[in-house]
Amino acid sequence: MDRRQRQTAVSRSLFVPQTDWIEEDEALILRVHLPGFSEKHIDCRIIAPSHYIRVCSDPALKNLHFNTLFESIPEKFNLIEARTKFDDGILTIKVPKVVSAKSSAGARELEGHSKTRGSWPTGKQCKQARDSKK
């Protein structure tokens, strides 16, 4: 397992959250430390075609507004299958590696596993849940 931490997140705001970039054997784990924030104030947009992830806060939070961008996510990671989880002030984004067609048995196993993980909604599901709370 390759556990490297990189500060590749770009932030364009006064509040700059601490970020971790951890590349494991099967997935890329991105963590954004957001103490004091609640899930309803966080927007996570996973832009698969451009291979980047944007995490920002509700613009109404003037003093704590932030806009963090994870750029240049390697193409070996499948952003379409990315999952998010917010717990104890930490937003965790899990991006699995692309599964090649050669390992189709492994791909079926991985797909079945990801569908059973109710605690990791997709970026779209995360946004839909947040919008329904408003």
UniProtKB/TrEMBL annotation:
Q: Which family does it belong to?
A: Belongs to the small heat shock protein (HSP20) family.
Which Gene3D superfamilies does the entry mention?
2.60.40.790
Ranges annotated as spanning the membrane: none
Q: Which PROSITE patterns does the record cross-reference, listed alphabetically?
A: SHSP
Species annotation: Salix suchowensis
Q: What is this protein called?
A: SHSP domain-containing protein
Cited InterPro entries: A-crystallin/Hsp20_dom, HSP20-like_chaperone
**CDD domains to which the protein is assigned, alphabetical:** ACD_sHsps-like (cd06464)
Q: Which domain of life is it from?
A: Eukaryota
| Domain annotation SHSP: ranges | 10-113
